[in-house]
Structures are given as structure tokens and as C-alpha cells.
Amino acid sequence: LLYFETYSDNPSLKQLGSKVRKDILGGQSLSSALNKQKKLFTPVFIGIIQAGESSGELEVTLQRLTDLMV
Length: 70
Prior knowledge:
The chain is mainly alpha-helical. About 75% of the residues lie in helices and about 0% in strands. The two termini are about 20 Å apart.
């Protein structure tokens, strides 16, 4: 998130990175922070993130999502 906030040329992506990072640093989970951005993240995507958080497999979950998007 800090990468997007710092290096993105896209102002919207910078703002997204900043908002989500701020929420996480404020104690919210990643899924909660992303859920505030409903225009950008679908309920299915957020549900997958929640499942990764609940299972303790968030890193693996994020890697799998990344593989699907690339």
C-alpha cells in the first residue's frame, strides 16, 4: 500500500493506498479497510480476503489472488 501511495502516477490509486493503509494502521483488518472502498472491491473479493484472515493464510490468499489477476 505504501508503494502505491508513494510511487503511483495515478492519483486515484495513491489515494486508495493512503486510505487503506491509514485504516490498517488504525487497527482495522485489511478486509474491513477494503470494504470501505465498495466501488472498487466486490463482495466476493472482500470475502476471499476475510477467509484468508480468518484461516491465518492471508499471505497465501493474497498471492493466489495476485496470480489470478496477472
